[in-house]
Backbone:
């Protein structure tokens, strides 16, 4: 049978585009569908743009594997495409003696995960690097950094299109039906509503992962994990950035917690926190500034009064609710759902951006080796 495309990817965020690029590199014709008017308008546009080292995730998990592999590949990609990035390093800080055991556990986890260059620092050593920091002890991760995520996604789009593929925006996925001899018919909405056929299908739509899987005819409902919206807000500092490196307190339950970064424009940003919400609400309550200030002063006592201004909010596609253990990334192939040629991604939150190139390679390898 002749198909319109070898592969269709649903979602033109960082992970969807990385999947499209990896499939394109294997000589396949690729269509990437995006419901918004521009690429990267969902989860990928509302994050910290941090390049994570791979410190926190259980050894052997997909998060640990893909974060370390993806981070190494990402720095090479950014350098080769001349995309703005900064390997500024990160300090994971114990602000009091009671937190030392927690950061020691992170050091051991990170070492087991193969993270390079880690160092134990005393409080004095940490303050020598960042004089305004309050630290009883710290871990230095020199491989952590920041990058221009939108330029990265544009470069991924460019590689797909250079290989003969198409990235189509304002093109919502409305459903798919398996074809008798293999492959899928994809229904695309929007002004140019149409149907296209493809041999392989990847779903990477972030917050819409559950809804997209449910719109595929024959996809078993029991294989669709429950989804939750984890909202996090950010506040920006009015004034000079106090630190060059990323500053992270020990993680909070379910997330890495409110951290500090000096963005590529030189401004200080704090966030995100974590609150579960029922809908895509991206408002930032200015009254939260007081709560943020109290948290930030644990590691930066010099925060001036009234210096925080609301910035933006993001929502993470979580697979766990409040008080539940944080699960791994989920990549559901034929062994899970029984549908040949389909890979469905669920729960691709942090460190999904850092992991994107590695996720793309894993998805493409699974689909092409099975084909």
Residues:
């Amino acid at each position: 049978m002749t198909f319109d495309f070898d592969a269709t990817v649903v979602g033109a965020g960082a992970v969807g585009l990385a999947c499209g690029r990896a499939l394109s590199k294997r000589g396949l014709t690729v269509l990437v569908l995006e419901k918004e008017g521009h690429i990267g308008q969902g989860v990928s546009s509302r994050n910290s743009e941090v390049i994570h080292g791979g410190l926190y995730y259980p050894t052997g998990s997909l998060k640990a594997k893909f974060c370390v592999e993806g981070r190494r590949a990402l720095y090479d990609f950014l350098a080769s495409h001349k995309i703005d990035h900064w390997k500024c390093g990160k300090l994971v800080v114990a602000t009091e003696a009671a937190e030392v055991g927690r950061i020691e556990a992170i050091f051991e986890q990170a070492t087991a995960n193969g993270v390079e260059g880690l160092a134990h620092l005393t409080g004095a050593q940490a303050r020598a690097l960042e004089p305004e920091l309050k630290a009883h002890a710290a871990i230095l991760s020199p491989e952590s950094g920041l990058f221009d995520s939108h330029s990265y996604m544009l470069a991924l789009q460019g590689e797909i299109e250079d290989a003969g593929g198409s990235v189509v925006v304002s093109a919502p996925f409305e459903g798919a039906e398996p074809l008798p001899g293999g492959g899928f018919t994809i229904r695309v909405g929007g002004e140019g509503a149409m149907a296209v056929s493809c041999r392989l299908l990847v779903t990477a739509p972030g917050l819409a992962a559950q809804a997209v899987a449910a719109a595929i005819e024959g996809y078993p409902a029991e294989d669709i994990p429950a989804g939750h919206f984890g909202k996090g807000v950010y506040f920006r500092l009015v004034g000079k950035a106090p630190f060059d490196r990323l500053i992270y307190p020990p993680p909070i339950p379910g997330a890495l917690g409110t951290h500090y970064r000096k963005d590529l424009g030189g401004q200080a940003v704090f966030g995100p926190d974590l609150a579960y919400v029922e809908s895509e609400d991206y408002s930032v309550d200015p009254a939260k500034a007081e709560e943020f200030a109290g948290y930030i002063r644990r590691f930066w006592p010099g925060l001036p009064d009234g210096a925080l201004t609301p910035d933006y909010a993001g929502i993470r596609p979580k697979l766990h609710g409040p008080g539940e253990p944080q699960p791994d990334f989920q990549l559901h192939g034929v062994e899970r759902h029984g549908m040949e040629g389909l890979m469905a991604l669920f729960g691709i939150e942090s460190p999904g951006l850092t992991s994107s190139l590695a996720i793309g390679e894993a998805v493409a390898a699974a689909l092409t080796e099975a084909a």
